[in-house]
Amino acid sequence: MTRLTDGDRVRLSTGHEVRLPLVTEATVAGAVLPAQYSVAESLLPEGLTPVRTTARRAAVVLLCVEYHRIGDDAMAPYDEFAVAIVVTPDGRRRPPLLPLLTRAAGAYVWSLPVTTEPARALGDEIWGYPKTVADITHRDDATRRETTVVEDGDRVATVSIDWPRAWERRERIGSYAVREGRLERTPVEFQGKLGVAPLSGRVTVDPDDHERADTLRALDLGSRSVLRFSLDGRIAYGAGRPVER
Predict the structure, then answer these.
(1) Among 214, 226, 109, which Cα is nearest to 161's?
(2) By CB distance 3.0 to 4.6 Å, which of 38, 115, 210, 231 could disulfide with 154?
């Protein structure tokens, strides 16, 4: 397994080079939605446990991301749509929402379509993110972002998320993915105008014909979000670290 550390400069298969931690500039609209626990659990690798929002519901994150700059302009900007499951790595069963409230939770990235091949290589080769290349369209206005994802000629979904009120702040989370057969945790830092709105109905998810849309339907995402959030600022991705089991 190729071990990467912060400070490394990595050359991708596409010829692009980036340095870790990778600092990007982006605008993000996101939501945490309740989901069918058994389906969310079935999508996880060994070593991760879904966080419960209720006794029978897990939490799924949808992220609609427009990157404006990648590192020191290492590659062209791109768009992204992430579906992730809120998890803890130790397998302990905790009261619903407690890991979110104590910031003990992270997010396992289940699906991550992007709009360019260099972006796909970046996520796959450095962090093991399950990136695929798709057509992603963001439509922004003063109220919301509407994102449509089309892959292999089929529409995956259209997601609409209202912007919450935002203020300057910094947050850190951990994201999980499997790289070269091993589960890793990547530190991710958000800095800029960050908006947060709990318990909101201002999110719509419309899955369509793609095979991943079938999984979105099976997750039975709730119509009322646990949390809406937004970012206009920087996202920094550090080097992943193996998760000890």
Answers:
(1) 226
(2) 210
Query: CA 39 to CA 178: how far, in whole Å?
Result: 19
Q: Which of 3, 9, 122, 107 is nearest to 50 (CA)?
A: 107
Structural tokens at position 2 = 């190729």
CA distances from 157 to 39, 59, 129, 152, 242 (A): 18, 18, 20, 13, 32
Separate counts of helices (H) and strands (E) for the chain: 4, 17
- CA–CA dist 28, 65 (Å, integer): 5
CB atoms within 10 A of CB 46: 8
Give the β-pairing of 131-133 and 135-140: unpaired
Residues in Cβ contact with 128 at an 8 Å cutoff, skipping those fewer than 6 apart: 177, 178, 179, 180, 184, 240
pLDDT in tens, 34-81: 999 999 999 999 999 999 998 889 999 999 999 999 999 999 999 999
